[in-house]
Amino acid sequence: xxxxxxxxxxxxxxxxxxxxxxxxxxxxxxxxxxxxxxxxxxxxxxxxxxxxxxxxxxxxxxxxxxxxxxxxxxxxxxxxxxxxxxxxxxxxxxxxxxxxxxxxxxxxxxxxxxxxxxxxxxxxxxxxxxxxxxxxxxxxxxxxxxxxxxxxxxxxxxxxxxxxxxxxxxxxxxxxxxxxxxxxxxxxxxxxxxxxxxxxxxxxxxxxxxxxxxxxxxxxxxxxxxxxxxxxxxxxxxxxxxxxxxxxxxxxxxxxxxxxxxxxxxxxxxxxxxxxxxxxxxxxxxxxxxxxxxxxxxxxxxxxxxxxxxxxxxxxxxxxxxxxxxxxxxxxxxxxxxxxxxxxxxxxxxxxxxxxxxxxxxxxxxxxxxxxxxxxxxxxxxxxxxxxxxxxxxxxxxxxxxxxxxxxxxxxxxxxxxxxxxxxxxxxxxxxxxxxxxxxxxxxxxxxxxxxxxxxxxxxxxxxxxxxxxxxxxxxxxxxxxxxxxxxxxxxxxxxxxxxxxxxxxxxxxxxxxxxxxxxxxxxxxxxxxxxxxxxxxxxxxxxxxxxxxxxxxxxxxxxxxxxxxxxxxxxxxxxxxxxxxxxxxxxxxxxxxxxxxxxxxxxxxxxxxxxxxxxxxxxxxxxxxxxxxxxxxxxxxxxxxxxxxxxxxxxxxxxxxxxxxxxxxxxxxxxxxxxxxxxxxxxxxxxxxxxxxxxxxxxxxxxxxxxxxxxxxxxxxxxxxxxxxxxxxxxxxxxxxxxxxxxxxxxxxxxxxxxxxxxxxxxxxxxxxxxxxxxxxxxxxxxxxxxxx
Length: 790
What we know:
Layout: H1 27-38, H2 41-54, H3 62-102, H4 108-117, H5 131-146, H6 148-157, H7 160-174, H8 181-201, H9 214-223, H10 226-244, H11 255-270, H12 283-288, H13 290-316, H14 323-339, H15 345-366, H16 380-397, H17 412-429, H18 436-446, E1 453-457, H19 458-470, H20 472-475, H21 482-490, E2 504-508, H22 520-523, H23 531-549, H24 551-554, H25 561-569, H26 574-592, H27 603-669, E3 674-678, E4 681-685, E5 691-697, H28 698-703, E6 707-710, E7 720-726, E8 731-738, E9 746-751, H29 752-760, E10 765-767, E11 771-774, H30 775-786
Antiparallel strand pairs: 1-2, 3-4, 5-7, 6-11, 7-8, 8-9, 10-11
Helix pairs in contact: 1-18, 2-23, 3-7, 3-27, 3-29, 5-6, 5-21, 6-8, 7-9, 7-19, 8-14, 8-18, 10-15, 10-27, 11-13, 13-16, 13-17, 14-15, 15-16, 16-17, 23-26, 23-27, 25-26, 27-30
């Protein structure tokens, strides 16, 4: 079985219920008996050999190359998803601190913390745990991965402040291989445990899964993994992009806002307001205005049409919803029925919708830029339309209650017309099979792997260790439990290392209590799987591998199995020779046992090999299609990574400007030549260095998404350009010019503080009267032009 490439990556420590230490040497036989009792071994071994033939690492045919590309791509998506998760946390943290920094109200230790968040990790610095500790961590994380109940309990015990760091380790490290069946199933097992506990402790039906708890944070984080991102992009991106193209389409239906917009338009057009249209009216007066009603009615129709297209697209995507998300929906339905047997179908569907729409679909509709579905922030009107669509879908998914926003009652026909359709969809989402039997085989197969490992940072390692120690009495009260034994051996957790020293390490995973399996097929032998079964399945697997290695004869029918074996055994390729000789011996044994017959050209095995080759041809097409789809997802994730990095660069530039300015002021106050510190080195600064101007056309800014909206007539845009200069650190001037005119039409003096504060307050637009610019992209441009030139 050396040629097998299993999709598993670690095995389960579940030999004895409760995880108590077992007598040495008994674990493998016990696991084998348990597996035999619960599964049809012949089917399992057959699947195992088919997998071996399908994923042969020594083959170099088109399927093998396509599979390798797909595996590499999935691995890169998993790795990049984790990097983005960490970067998003850093950006959120710095967003929350920047206002204090701007207002100079930050304590010294807080400033140090901000500076550390921006430090690059030095892979050469820092200390590794010694070999003994590494072995102990290898045992501990093997146990945590293969027995998800421990992690599930820990997730319920930690505080909201601690959950994000733990989720990083759980979602992107411990179960970080997001497309690997065994890890995905183990993670879902953990979710089942967490959800069960949530249902047990919740006293009111209405509060189930609604509040911002560690459990709800877990569910949201799970949807942000690769498969969830891929689904959102394939289902929602085109629909959202076609909507936001209509920048001027205003579908506001809140009567108060419609009234305000109406009187503003009248004032702009006529220069005055009639006495019958006072400012600052209450909502009921605005709603009763006949002109407001006339504006709203056609908007309601259009909104319902758009919402129907979104709903239809989502319902039609049923088969592409990631298995894990559907399985969580299934658990919500199952747990609700168990705890509340009298709950109506509509009530249960509202809980399922509370996860699928509230935590997964609607956040992506409301802020598509954060989910990498669009380039840049949508313009004001489309942004509002998307918010209204999300509200409509959420009201439909919940048992609708419009008490908070009376004006949404006007959209009630959408809810009434689609209630049945929505509940059918939410129930159908739950109709997926369980994975327990395949997981048990995967767990068992994992014991035959030699390269089980995870990529983990030192701080993830130490933080998880620390949390386990804090809650050890609850997690593992019995001193004979495996978890307790491992934690006692490890002792106290080391403190967090400085960010600069927080290196990643490849941590191998293995168990102190499980015996590695050398030969899976022999280990799985039982009353239902004989040696003849093993020989037959191995022979079939080898014939498939030989046909894939010799494509020039793969299409000939009927397949001459003895001729194929002879050709391989007498070739010049040592791998083919070994396989040819092996399969000749297997055929001879099978014929002697009466399993196959030379008289009919081994028809039974010949037909199965031919069917397997057809299956592999279909597999290749699926692999190529999946690769194309995931390449787009990977590119989007990388683009988002670049965007997040540019935000961090802006913060770095800002901090550097603060230091430059304060150093300069000190130099000036002392009456000498200003001395500034840049990257740890002192430089003399005699006077301000004016940088720029840098020139950009209107077309360039539009193409790069810097211009969000433009009031410049189309025929004049070719004559418009922008000059950007930086007279002092942290100060920028944008001048808007018309070709042929010496003086600018408009100049705006900007401070980086103001732009960063706008970004922190999620004000995406900078109004230059004639054009509206995208704040994050303007910041990124300033950073690119000036940060490295001072």
